[in-house]
Amino acid sequence: MKNCLLLYIIKNKQQMMKKYILSAIAIFTIGFVSAQNAKFGVKGGGVFASSKIMIGDSDTGFYVGGFSDVAVSEKFHVQPEVLYVYIKELSQIQVPILAKVPVVENFSLLAGPNFGFILNTDSYVKSFNFGLDFGASVDVSEDFSLDLKYNLGLTDLNKAGNSDSSFKINALLFGLGYKF
Asked: Which of 18, 34, 139, 173 could serve as 106's disulfide partner, Cβ 3.0–4.6 Å?
């Protein structure tokens, strides 16, 4: 009985921490965006993921979400995103905070941290996933853009902590964004 109560308390604390972190990121983003030249948008696309455990060799999925493109200067933008990502039996909210560097007209490089909050964890999978995103964005018009990003999963999601079997997710994301 004590073990069940302890597990319940720990799980609730983890869920509250997720809410606090997401709230803090949202407040930071809104405050930052309101003081800058920003565009907002929605995006969606395909996900091609690979992992040694749970997902299999590779699998496909999708993502949808919102973003803002904050022009800090002509040569540097910040692009925070909030995405729902679904791959096979794994759902997560990803919050990448990307540096966007225009290289030539209508072409930018993207890089930054990605904070993932796994929604359907079990006793074997950790609920927080940290990674790094690298990629590029092409503005095909003033309103539409194409993104290609690679997400390098750095967190071992295996709760057992067994060094023989780590569970990290790496994914290639390709999508279309609409700015308004």
From this structure: 139
pLDDT at 15 over 70: no
Q: Give φ, ψ of 75 to 5 degrees.
A: -105, 5
Q: Is the pLDDT assigned to residue 6 strictly greater than 50?
A: no
Residue 73 exposure: Cα atoms within 13 Å on the Cβ side: 3
Would you state the structure tokens that stand for residue 148, as one six-digit string?
Answer: 């290609």
CA angle 94, 97, 103 (to 5 degrees): 125
What pLDDT, on a 0 to 100 scale, did the predictor assign at position 164?
65
Burial per residue of 22-60, b for 16 or more beta-carbon CB atoms within 10 angstroms, e otherwise: eeeeeeebeebbeeeebbebebebebebbbeebbeeebe
Reference 180, options 147, 146, 143; nearest CA is: 143
Bridge partners (DSSP) of residue 68 are 40
Measured between alpha carbons, how far is 171 from 180 in angstroms, rounded to an integer? 27
Say what the pLDDT of residue 90 is: 85
| Chain center to CA of 48 | 14
pLDDT (0 to 100) of residue 17: 62
Task: Count other Cβ atoms within 10 Å, centred on residue 176.
Answer: 13
**Nearest residue to 53 (alpha-carbon basis) of 141, 157, 133:** 157
